[in-house]
Structure formats: structure tokens, C-alpha cells
Write a structure and sequence with these properties.
58% helix, alpha/beta, 12 helices, 2 domains, 5 strands
């Protein structure tokens, strides 16, 4: 089995990988790419049973990636999932036109992910007559105590004691949380710097791109308050809203990210 995941966010790649492992896919069977061209080259050479792709990526975007997949084989597109936070119906329609028919929304909901992906894993197991144990949605829940899943934690001062709660909310195993948090903060620091530079020169296209990326990563980590901040900035940038105090809105997030210690 080969599962290919394409996204320019390392945090999202790790999140999807952790979710797949929780459903019974072995780590060595999950191949991740931050570059769609590299993913396409790999698929052309080695094939893929299931493919996950973002829409907005630098270089080759999701639209071109899906178009090129179709040229390789229609079978690849039939096993494709578009994983995106894009809420523009025009982009969704455009993706469907080029061949991307199945969507998983970011922030990724573990139960929805399982609902869509488990049937595909079962098909592969039956077709290849493999012994892989595909976990159902119920079997894949990390914590069965609902009180754990709904408990809150102070994301401004995360400790290892919070990992089981975060893992339960994300639908992954606690062992993956530390790696994901480290990835999130490293990625957020880079994007936040780009975002500040874009705000300084009123580059609304770049503001939208950076805030979209930050929104997606924060959402997948279930940092909901941070998610809402970047969502607001992204929507304002789309409208080229000159009245929004962008820099002021960023201050709490900037302080939180800059104070993070591994």
C-alpha cells in the first residue's frame, strides 16, 4: 500500500500522517510531500493507492496537480481526497471541474476523516488480500472517556499533561502531539514574519496567503482562538479591507509564538 499526502504545511502533513497511522496504516506506507511536482513524479514512478492534496500550494497548485494526475491515470483521481480550508465556492467548483470530487475540510475532524478514508482502506485490503487491520471510527478513538475529549486546556502554556486532551481532540495518539506542536510553532514563526512584512506594505494577496496557512495549522491543532484571529485577517485581506487593525490583532499571537520554548 502507498498513501501519498501533498501539502505545503509540514504541520498538516504530520497531522494527516498521524490520523492515518491511527487508522492502521503503517508509517512506512505513508509518503509525504511539500511539493506537488515531487509528489507527481513519485506517483508516476511508484504509483499510489490513496492520495491527499491541498489546493493552495506554491509552485504547482492543487488544480494543476489534479489535472496532471488525470493524465497519468484516471484511477489516481478516483482515489483522491482534496484536503482544504478553502471556502470559496468558485474554487470548489473549479476543483470539481478538473477532477477533484471528494473533499475533507480543514480543520480536519477525525471522525469525518475516518468516515471517508476507512472504506477506501478496506477496499485496498480486500483487493490486495492484505492482513492490515483497518480500524473503524470507534476503534480508532484514542480516548474513550468523553470528558477527556471535551476538557479544556490553556493553549498559552501547554505542558505534556495536556497531550492526552489535545490528542483526543485531534483524533491521534498522544505520542504524536509533541512533534506536531514543535512543527506548528516552527512553521508559525516563519509565516508570522512573512505576514508582518506583508501587512507593512499592504500586500493583501500575501496577507491572505500567510493568514490562510496559519489558520489551517492552528485549526488542525485545535487552537481555536488563534484560528479565529487568522480567519478574520484572511477574510479582511480578501476584501482588501484597509480599516482592520491587522498588526494589533496579531500582537497576542505574536507574543505567544515568540515566547514558545521547546
Amino acid at each position: 500500500m502507498k498513501v501519498v499526502v501533498v501539502d505545503d504545511s509540514k504541520t498538516v502533513l504530520l497531522t494527516i500522517k498521524a490520523l492515518l497511522e491511527n487508522l492502521g496504516v503503517e508509517e512506512e506506507n505513508i509518503i509525504t510531500f511539500a511539493d506537488a511536482r515531487e509528489a507527481l513524479s513519485y506517483i508516476d514512478t511508484h504509483g499510489a493507492n490513496i492520495i491527499f492534496s491541498d489546493i493552495h500550494m506554491p509552485g504547482m497548485d492543487g488544480f494543476e496537480f489534479v489535472s496532471q494526475l488525470l493524465k497519468l491515470s484516471k484511477q489516481y483521481v478516483s482515489t483522491l481526497f482534496i484536503v482544504s480550508a478553502d471556502e470559496h465556492m468558485d474554487n470548489v467548483s473549479r476543483m470539481k471541474d478538473v477532477g477533484g470530487k471528494r473533499f475533507i475540510r480543514k480543520p480536519i475532524n477525525a471522525k469525518h476523516f475516518s468516515h471517508f478514508v476507512v472504506p477506501e482502506l478496506i477496499k485496498i485490503r480486500r483487493r490486495d488480500n492484505t492482513q492490515m487491520h483497518v480500524k473503524t471510527g470507534l476503534e480508532s478513538q484514542v480516548l474513550t472517556d468523553d470528558s477527556e475529549a471535551t476538557r479544556q486546556y490553556d493553549f498559552l502554556s501547554i505542558t505534556e499533561e495536556d497531550y492526552p486532551i489535545i490528542a483526543s481532540q485531534m483524533g491521534i495518539k498522544p505520542k504524536h502531539v509533541g512533534m506536531l506542536i514543535k512543527s506548528f510553532f516552527a512553521e508559525a514563526a516563519i509565516n508570522l514574519k512573512k505576514l508582518e512584512e506583508a501587512i507593512a506594505i499592504n500586500d493583501y494577496a500575501q496577507i491572505e496567503r500567510c493568514s490562510h496557512s496559519l489558520k489551517g495549522s492552528a485549526g488542525n491543532m485545535k487552537f481555536n482562538q488563534v484560528y479565529e484571529v487568522f480567519k478574520k485577517i484572511e477574510e479582511a485581506a480578501q476584501a482588501e479591507d484597509k480599516t482592520l487593525p491587522y498588526s494589533e490583532l496579531l500582537l497576542p499571537c505574536k507574543e505567544w509564538i515568540s515566547n514558545y520554548e521547546e
